[in-house]
Amino acid sequence: MSKKLYVVFAIVLLASLLLTACGTPAPVVEEKFKACQVTDTGGIDDKSFNATAWKGVQDAVTQYGIEGKILESAQAADYEKNINAFLEEGCDIIVTVGFLLGDATKAAAEANPDAKFAIVDFAYDPTIPNVVGLVYNTDEAAFVAGYLAAGMTKTGKVGTFGGIQIPTVTIFMDGFYYGVQYYNTQKGTAVEVLGWDPVAATGLFTNSFEDQTLGNQYAIQLMDQGADIIMPVAGPVGIGAAAAVKDRGNALFIGVDSDWVVYQPDYASVILTSVNKGMDTMTTAVIKSAMDGTFAGGVLVGTMANNGVSIAPYHDLDASVPAELKAEVEQIQKDIIAGTLKVKP
User: Fold this and answer.
1) pLDDT tens string 195-232
2) 269, pLDDT greater than 60
3) For 145-155, what is each residue's pLDDT tens digit?
4) 228 and 111 in one domain?
């Protein structure tokens, strides 16, 4: 081949390669659906509602192959900042956790009507079109726990205290109180509830969801007053209470939000039961709705009938609960589900 023909051949080949390259579309990389969670100040390791809601995100990651991200709020000022960070990142749904994020979530949702939000433990009235409120009738399960506590106490006194006096806390305390009163009505007893009066709306509150020292102190205070079963409604603060109960050695503990034997196995020997909220399953469900196009703003309510709330097994203390009391507890749950037993007066 002459030098001239060789040059012509090289030019033709190069042109062919360029045309081929230009005519071939670049591969399309599909971005994964992204579910993003903003925690309350208790943090992801609260062994309570932040952790349980995060489990719902993680379950969605496992089941649907999506991406899950989280930002923890160290203080209230972080709520707006973290939500805005996820908006800028283009999250497909933002899940905020806790009553205290209500205002920040509302402001972000109204300012970004095309974004999708879910908020755990809060709902809006009127509803917001791009926000799903996940709320729970925890008083149903707490009522059962109160009845159980009244049946198990040896001193005739049981106790409860809260983190902050907000509806998502006091609903547990209400149910617990009225469950004890129902036991008293059925049995002709006079078991006393220390730490909360739902009529006067007064009781014990640590004003913290983080300080475990306060949980320890409040539990000791209640035990010193005679309570031998204690139910804190205060997130990680309850860990301090569980430690005090275990140290005292003559009292029992009732957990809230999740099964404390699973999340706090060090205290399994004193955990009678827990009042569970299905925050994981409902979080997973709302993420799926955002994925498949069925998402609609409004309210989803977890009840005993739809397994949104429940009480945990007795675990290590199963043998300590009398068979008759177990049967009564089972029947009460059936009656609540059937609607024949009301947990509020």
Assistant:
1) 999 999 999 999 998 899 999 999 999 999 999 999 99
2) yes
3) 999 999 999 99
4) no
| Residue 292, burial from CB neighbour count under 10 angstroms (0-12, 13-18, 19+) | exposed
Are residues 198 and 318 located together in one domain of the fold? yes
Looking at beta carbons, which pairs linking 129-133 to residues 24 or more positions away fall under 8 Å? Answer: 129/297, 130/297, 131/105, 131/106, 131/297, 132/286, 132/289, 132/295, 132/296, 132/297, 132/298, 132/299, 132/300, 133/298, 133/299, 133/300
238 and 169 share one domain: yes
Whether 27 is covered by a domain: the verdict is no
- Radius of gyration of the chain from Cα atoms? 26
- Same domain membership, residue 167 and residue 123: no
Number of domains in the chain: 2
Q: What is the CATH number of the domain that holds 61?
A: 3.40.50.2300
Burial class (CB in 10 A: 0-12, 13-18, 19+), 320: exposed
Q: Is 164 exposed, middle or buried (0-12, 13-18, 19+ CB in 10 A)?
A: middle
Whether residue 286 sits in one domain with residue 227: no
Q: Which domain holds residue 111?
A: 34-136+280-302
Comparing 30-34, 178-182, 185-189, 339-343, the range with the smallest average pLDDT is: 30-34
- Tell me how far apart the alpha carbons of residues 207 and 183 are, in angstroms, rounded to a whole number: 30
Q: Which percentage of the chain shows pLDDT scores above 90?
A: 84
Residue 133 has what pLDDT?
Answer: 97
Establish if 21 belongs to a structural domain: no
- For 300, the 3-state DSSP assignment is strand
Q: CB–CB of 209/40 below 8 Å?
A: yes
Does residue 25 belong to any structural domain of this protein? no
Which pLDDT tens digit goes with each residue over 37-96? 999 988 888 777 888 899 999 999 999 999 999 999 999 999 999 999 999 999 999 999
Residue 8 inside a domain? The answer is no
